Structure prediction request, 63 residues.
Amino acid sequence: MCKDMYVLTIDEDTQGLIINALLKLREEKLQEGMDVGWIGDVIVDVCNAPKRKGRFVGESHER
Prediction:
């Protein structure tokens, strides 16, 4: 099995939506009797993801 690594950069609003969706998925899978231990690990990863820095209109940056 291959394990790929990705870096997720999100803003706080998106982080909240992802966590809520994962919690809902966890509840559904618990009712079905499935293993949900991995969902807790994903929630921790999402909580620890670097935050996207907001930019204002007209703000420039160098590449």
